[in-house]
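A quick aside before the break. I want you to see a complete sequence-to-structure record at least once, exactly as it would be stored in a machine-readable document. Don't worry about memorizing anything.
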Amino acid sequence: MKAETALFAGVSLFFAVSATTYGRSSAEPAGTAALVVSCLMSALVAFFLWYRHRKDGLLPKDRKGASVHEATGSVAFFPPHSAFPVLAAAGTALLGLGAVYGLWLFLIGAGVLVPGVLGFAFQYAARGTDPVRPTGVEDR
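That is the input. The structure line, written in C-alpha cells, reads:
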C-alpha cells in the first residue's frame, strides 16, 4: 500500500502545482476550481491509503520476499443469476430518456430503477456465513 499512497500523493501534488500555475495565469475561475477539487480528491485517497497502511502494517505486496500465496484470501460471493442488473439498466436508460422526453418517462424510469437497486442491495442479504450458497439451499 506504500506504492499506492505515494502515487496518489504525487497526483495530488501535481494537481496542486497545476491549480496554482493555472490560477495565477488565468482569470477563469472554473478551471482553477476543478484543479483544486481534483487535488483535494486525490489527497483524500492518499490520506486514506496512508491511514490504512499505518493501521494494517505492511501488506505482502509491500515486502520483497513475500510469496504469492500470502496475498490470497477468500473470494467474494458472486450470485449465479439475477434479473436485477437488467432491471437497473433499464431503469437507468428510462431515466436518461425521461430527462429528454418528459417527466412522465423519468418517473417510470425511477419506478423501474428503485426496485433494481434495492434488489441488488438486498437479494442475498439473508444468506448465511457460507460464502458458496445462501442459507436454506440444501445439497441434492
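Two observations worth writing down. The two ends are 44 Å apart (CA to CA). The chain has a mean pLDDT of 86. We'll return to this after the break.
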